[in-house]
Design brief:
Elements lengths: L2 H8 L21 E2 L7 E2 H4 L9 E8 L10 E8 L21 E2 H22 L4 H7 L21 H19 L1 E4 L3 E7 L2 E6 L3 E4 L5 E6 L3 E4 L3 E4 L5 E12 L2 H6 L4 H17 L17 H16 L4 E13 L4 H37 L7 H20 L2
Antiparallel strand pairs: 1-2, 3-4, 5-9, 6-9, 7-8, 7-10, 11-13, 12-13, 13-14
Helix pairs in contact: 3-5, 7-8, 9-10
């Protein structure tokens, strides 16, 4: 008789409810499932597919067997925290780069020359122009000036002369003050009283409103090699990593106005992304064939994708982020180097031993199957021993 049957026979069974004096069995809750071999399990836990918390997922767990039933453990599910995606930085959408209105540089040059000529005409009109300049230019005597060289009295600046001089001076200042030289690989970010007014990527001489504040941004393709960045692998081993980043400014407005210093922001993002990517894999797998940080191609791809997502909102485009050197921290470098050498030596011995055993097996099999020798157990063991020593010695001499 099994343990379950014995327990059933020992458990007092209720008598027929029709028998006098027998109490009626209590009604079981419809929300519970009960049996002699299992515990009470709520129905909503058996048929529940999705957890109440979206950030929690269910993973297999083991339920302990019940004492005295002989039931084997069965797998259920227990909640495990699921990693939540981090939100990307948000930048004002109005900061998207757009072209600013500029004029050719010749317009500013002509305006400046016209303003200088107007100022000279106003001075001549007022009689302030020096005699040598007036005679060299062949200018006649002005109406309010009696003559050159002391032959007449200075008439002074009237209202008309002052207005002409002010207008001509303003034209000269605006004409020459708005001249700018656009360079290859550089862009101007223009603002007026703190408001973004556009960007300029043109080259050569141009005229820009002198009231606008100009900020030059380098938009060329650049690379940056980091200093050794401290990090840890999945096992918590301290590492030092050097990363080479190839990048450029794609949106000059966001890189200038959306962040205080886009180069400092890039450096901080490289350090954070490097620490996150390197913590996913071990630096070395001494005895297992698992992915490690020595696969720089895969590590570089993951680092590039993560860094590009972090820097895109501020107008920085990442082309490549590749670790050029991954090494252990100085305080543990010697210990890990000895461990790596020991693992390589163990792998070498294992491969040599496997090769020797295969060679011995192949030799003995060929000798016996072709009928060259007939061996009993003792002779077979002796031959295997001699061949193993010979083959292993031959491998060691290589």
């Amino acid at each position: 008789m099994s343990a379950t049957a014995a327990s059933r026979s020992q458990t007092p069974q209720p008598e027929d409810p029709q028998v006098a004096g027998a109490p009626e069995p209590a009604a079981r809750s419809p929300r519970l499932i009960q049996s002699e071999a299992t515990t009470e399990i709520p129905v909503h836990l058996l048929f529940r597919d999705d957890p109440a918390d979206p950030g929690v997922s269910l993973s297999p767990a083991v339920v302990r067997r019940r004492q005295g039933t002989g039931e084997q453990p069965r797998a259920t599910r227990k909640p495990v925290a699921r990693p939540v995606a981090r939100p990307l930085p948000d930048v004002d959408p109005a900061l998207g780069e757009r072209p600013a209105r500029v004029l050719p540089g010749m317009v500013g040059v002509l305006g400046g020359i016209s303003g200088v000529a107007g100022c000279a005409a106003a001075l001549w009109w007022a009689g302030v122009l020096p005699e040598s300049v007036a005679r060299a230019a062949g200018l006649p005597r002005p109406g309010g000036y009696a003559g050159y060289g002391g032959y007449g009295a200075y008439a002074g600046l009237g209202l008309a002369q002052w207005a002409s001089l002010a207008g001509s001076g303003a034209l000269a200042l605006f004409g020459f003050g708005g001249l700018a030289r656009g360079r290859v690989g550089a862009a101007w970010v223009l603002t007026l009283f703190g408001r973004y007014r556009g960007s300029v990527r043109r080259t050569g001489l141009m005229w820009v409103n002198p009231l606008l504040l100009r900020r030059r941004v380098d938009v060329r393709l650049r690379h940056w090699r980091s200093e050794p960045i401290p990090a840890v692998d999945r096992s918590g081993v301290a590492l030092r990593v050097v990363v080479l980043v190839v990048w450029r400014v794609k949106d000059a407005a966001r890189a200038t106005l959306g962040v205080a210093d886009h180069q400092e922001y890039l450096r901080e993002c490289v350090e954070a992304a490097t620490a996150r990517v390197l913590s996913r894999l071990p630096a070395d797998a001494f005895h297992d064939d698992t992915p490690t940080l020595r696969d720089t191609e895969a590590v570089g791809d993951a680092l590039t994708r993560m860094l590009a997502a972090e820097t895109e909102p501020v107008g920085i485009q990442i082309f490549s982020a590749q670790p050029t050197r991954i090494e252990y921290a100085p305080e543990i470098a010697d210990t890990m180097r000895l461990r790596r050498v020991a693992a390589l030596d163990a792998r070498h011995r294992d491969s040599v031993l496997t090769s020797v055993v295969d060679s011995v097996e192949d030799t003995v099999t060929r000798l016996t199957t072709r009928g060259l020798v007939e061996l009993d157990d003792y002779e077979r063991k002796a031959l295997v021993k001699d061949l193993t020593v010979a083959f292993y010695t031959g491998h060691g001499d290589r």
